[in-house]
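Q: what sequence does this backbone want?
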């Protein structure tokens, strides 16, 4: 941690003055970048107006979405987070492996105690082989609804992209907007469970777009020049939704996901699960006499219509700058698949393959040391006053029938300091009961779950395979996210995973390297990774209501034998519980 410059208190108040004086729209992001690799993130309550109402939300530097972090492959970046809000918060650098450096990963009570109001904490973000788009977000309560932003990782100076360099980068952050306070949403989710407020709109860069009342003025606009190629860095920051995204009149060439390159393929729309990123090239190649404005649009992908979703379409506008300005909105919306178009989503996901060239090789493990089969369920826990999945219960969620309970002090510190009683190292490798996981209408007794703070401990360097098995309990696609690693998503299918047949269908040649895999509703997905990153790493569904219901576990990867295969020592600046 040596060498982190301290910001003088007077300078901080100056920064806060800028936030208050300029408000959301005019805040210059550069003001918060003290040096190329050093940012100040001031958490503040900020008033914004959406859907005809003013509302107070938590922001970074008064911006929603928050500022973009720029880095090059292999950089180290410092972000000093000053908590000027009224509640505890932590930030997470989603998709950054942080080799040997779990201290700065961020999830509350997993790798750190929260940053309390009035306090500050400097994250040291260590990039390694990631190249592409990642993102950062709050990892406490439901704060990430508004506390999130893009991370753009370019190739090292002097290195080239594996495609012609795009003219400009355009972060496209897909999100959701709630008219209710997200703290209220969290309370509802924990108390009533099923009867939560669904989002009032999907958003593109914080804006619902032209199709919503009082929203046209704020609609996100992308100026483009004819003949140029743009890199859309699409991020799904939504709390509850997978999304389809498309641009009218233009195809999209997908070249990366989750900070790793893909074999390019061209599509009319993409499907992006919650937590994922997709890098897509857009060629501004409309005919000279064609329309000059085109809608970009995003809409939910969901398969279980019993679970309410907001079925509305968020829009942004692509505007050709060399065309005569035309009054009025674009002529047409792009063709988006229907909300429940499972075939479209499955076909898209099947096309993701690693680039796998000499410059960007793959190293897919062929031998497995730790084999895990992990069922994913939405469950019930007794609660006299609740009307959850059945009356007298509240909603919960589990992996292998363990509903994760977050401890009151962080697991990383307990592990590092050998404090007993915080967690148990016995997360099961197999479901405790084999039944027809995907058959509809499961028996009521299957609805209940155990609770615990159970973690999976693995040796340094072990190859871990996890097959996530969706069940009819909570039959929806679950975006499973692993901290600390980019894994290979080697297989995916429907029904119950068959250990004798399905491994033969794995792609061990060029599977996509991701940090979030979409486990299909009523199906399974298999991932593999080498546990060469010692530390404590959270794994959870990226639908936040499932996270808080307990659809989580933790990997503890033990130290290796040499100093460079061991966790870095505990920084003295860690917040205290
Ligand atoms: C912010 O919004 C809240 C709730 O709408 C309102 O009560 C408050 O006066 C606003 N504050 C400012 C500074 O506009
Ligand atoms: C950040 O916190 C440290 C204590 O952890 C304190 O010494 C320092 O003054 C704080 N800096 C700012 C700008 O608040
Ligand atoms: C949903 O939001 C409305 C206000 O828009 C509120 O009256 C209602 O109680 C909320 N319901 C739940 C379950 O949170
Ligand atoms: C989605 O949100 C919009 C805007 O608040 C609302 O008009 C619409 O009814 C919602 N859709 C659904 C299906 O709830
Ligand atoms: C998009 O790709 C399809 C299939 O290759 C092609 O038929 C279509 O013309 C393309 N559309 C545009 C706008 O380029
Ligand atoms: C644009 O020009 C092409 C060729 O010059 C012509 O075929 C096409 O009909 C024109 N389109 C419009 C919308 O005017
Ligand atoms: C969503 O809207 C489409 C068309 O507007 C409709 O066909 C579909 O049934 C709706 N789905 C839900 C879940 O409301
Ligand atoms: C749930 O149980 C409570 C208390 O027994 C009762 O008041 C309520 O009406 C029940 N709700 C339903 C949906 O059955
Ligand atoms: C599981 O249930 C599904 C759906 O009811 C059925 O098609 C399938 O045959 C069952 N599998 C087994 C092994 O019983
Ligand atoms: C999960 O655990 C609960 C509580 O012990 C038990 O009632 C239930 O049958 C178990 N379910 C499965 C699928 O193992
Ligand atoms: C904030 O964090 C501190 C330290 O872990 C904890 O003692 C306190 O209860 C937290 N506050 C809330 C409201 O959760
Ligand atoms: Cu989930």
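A:
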């Amino acid at each position: 941690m040596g060498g982190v410059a301290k910001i003088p208190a007077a300078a901080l108040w100056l920064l806060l003055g800028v936030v208050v004086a300029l408000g959301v729209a005019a805040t210059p992001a550069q003001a918060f970048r003290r040096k190329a690799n050093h940012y100040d993130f001031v958490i503040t309550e900020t008033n914004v107006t959406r859907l005809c109402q003013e509302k107070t939300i938590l922001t970074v530097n008064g911006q929603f979405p928050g500022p973009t972090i720029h880095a090059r492959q292999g950089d180290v970046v410092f972000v000093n987070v000053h908590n000027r809000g009224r509640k505890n918060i932590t930030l997470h650098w989603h998709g950054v492996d942080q080799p040997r450096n779990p201290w700065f990963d961020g999830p509350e009570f997993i790798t750190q105690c929260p940053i309390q109001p009035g306090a500050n904490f400097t994250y040291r973000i260590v990039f390694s082989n990631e190249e592409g788009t990642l993102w950062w977000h709050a990892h406490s309560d439901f704060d990430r609804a508004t506390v999130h932003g893009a991370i753009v990782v370019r190739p090292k100076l002097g290195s080239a992209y594996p495609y012609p360099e795009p003219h400009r980068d355009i972060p496209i952050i897909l999100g959701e907007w709630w008219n209710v306070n997200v703290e209220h949403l969290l309370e509802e989710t924990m108390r009533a469970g099923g009867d939560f407020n669904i989002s009032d709109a999907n958003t593109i860069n914080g804006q619902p777009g032209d199709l919503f009342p009082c929203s046209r003025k704020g609609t996100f606009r992308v100026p483009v020049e004819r003949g140029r190629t743009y890199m859309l860095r699409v991020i799904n920051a939504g709390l509850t939704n997978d999304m389809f995204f498309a641009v009218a009149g233009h195809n999209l060439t997908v070249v990366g996901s989750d900070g790793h390159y893909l074999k390019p393929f061209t599509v009319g729309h993409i499907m992006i699960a919650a937590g994922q990123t997709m890098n897509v090239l857009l060629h501004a190649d409309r005919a000279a006499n064609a329309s000059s404005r085109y809608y970009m649009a995003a809409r939910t992908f969901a398969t279980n219509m019993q679970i309410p979703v907001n079925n509305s379409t968020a829009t942004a506008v692509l505007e050709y700058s060399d065309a005569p300005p035309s009054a009025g909105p674009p002529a047409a919306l792009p063709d988006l698949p229907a909300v429940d178009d499972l075939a479209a989503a499955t076909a898209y996901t099947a096309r993701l393959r690693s680039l796998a060239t000499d410059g960007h090789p793959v190293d897919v493990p062929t031998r497995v040391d730790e084999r895990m089969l992990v069922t994913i369920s939405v469950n019930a826990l007794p609660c006299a006053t609740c009307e959850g999945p059945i009356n007298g219960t509240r909603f919960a969620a589990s992996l292998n029938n363990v509903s994760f309970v977050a401890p009151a002090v962080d697991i990383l510190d307990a592990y590092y300091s050998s404090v007993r009683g915080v967690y148990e190292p016995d997360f099961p490798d197999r479901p405790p009961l084999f039944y027809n996981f995907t058959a509809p209408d499961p028996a009521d007794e299957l609805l209940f779950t155990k609770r615990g703070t159970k973690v999976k401990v693995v040796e340094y360097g072990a190859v871990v395979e996890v097959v996530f098995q969706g069940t009819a309990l909570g039959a929806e696609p679950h975006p499973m996210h692993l901290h600390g690693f980019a894994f290979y998503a080697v297989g995916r299918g429907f029904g119950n995973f068959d250990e004798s047949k399905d491994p033969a269908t794995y792609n061990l040649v060029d599977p996509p390297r991701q940090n979030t895999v979409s486990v299909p509703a009523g199906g399974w997905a298999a991932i593999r990774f080498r546990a060469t990153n010692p530390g404590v790493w959270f794994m959870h569904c990226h639908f936040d209501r499932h996270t808080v219901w307990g659809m989580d576990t933790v990997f503890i990867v033990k130290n290796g034998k040499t100093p460079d295969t061991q966790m870095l020592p505990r920084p003295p600046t860690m917040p205290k519980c």
